[in-house]
């Protein structure tokens, strides 16, 4: 594990986030980098946090729990970015700042109940499957309006925005239409519910510049940070 390389990667990613924001007339501070640490051990994550990456994302609840434990002495804001099963929701919700991939009304309703029991409940994003096949999780864009009233009725849990995965390993050009679509779906949901959903969690290592151009406020980046440093 090469800690210098991790620090260099972080600086390079932050610079290109800032550059992408500038090109779209946005402030770099409007885009939060979530460093995706899945499959990387605590020793590889520590240098990233020490270099200033305080928002960390994990895909699997059990892997998240063990890393929260292993890195409990660091000032980390944890994000769950993968699928959450109902039976793991209570324990996970107590540990994280944000749950990015709430992918069903059933899970959302159960988080709405859990939120009441927590001092600092997580914020959540609703996952929308804008690209069709790549991910089987999340609302279909056409089914979101059907659930709009039920979504708006969840008032304990803070629904702050929408999330999507354009595809694994997609390029900026390939992914951009999916990001534009998520933004449009968000605007429609705002109109349908009369509520605001300011956050868009979209963009990964290969496509975050396109995501920022389409209004992303959370980019979830893993491989670009660990490239050349592990494995
Ligand atoms: C793995 C993963 C990422 C990070 O992907 P990279 O291409 O490694 O940057 C982001 N979001 C989700 C949901 C993921 O599963």
Fold blueprint:
Elements: H1 3-23, E1 32-36, H2 42-50, E2 55-58, H3 61-70, E3 77-80, H4 89-93, E4 98-102, H5 105-115, E5 123-127, H6 148-152, E6 158-163, H7 172-193, E7 199-201, H8 208-213, E8 218-221, H9 223-226
Parallel strand pairs: 1-2, 1-8, 2-3, 3-4, 4-5, 5-6, 6-7
Pyridoxal-5'-phosphate binds at residues 36, 38, 59, 81-82, 165, 204-206, 220-224.
Provide the spatial order of strands within the biggest beta sheet: 7-6-5-4-3-2-1-8
Characterize the quaternary organization of these chains: single chain
How many β strands by DSSP? 8
Radius of gyration: 17 Å
Helicity range of the residues? Answer: 40-55%
| Main β-sheet description | 8 strands, parallel
| Inertia-based shape | globular
Query: Which range does the strand content fall in?
Result: 15-25%
Tally the helices: what do you get?
A: 9
Output the CATH topology: TIM Barrel
Low-confidence stretches: none
- Which kinds of small molecule does this entry bind, naming each only once? pyridoxal-5'-phosphate
> CATH homologous superfamily - what is it?
Alanine racemase
Question: Any idea what the CATH architecture is?
Answer: Alpha-Beta Barrel
Q: How many domains is the backbone divided into? A: 1
Order of helices and strands: HEHEHEHEHEHEHEHEH
Structural class: alpha/beta
Overall residue-averaged pLDDT value: 96
Give the termini distance in whole angstroms.
7 Å
Overall CATH class? Alpha Beta
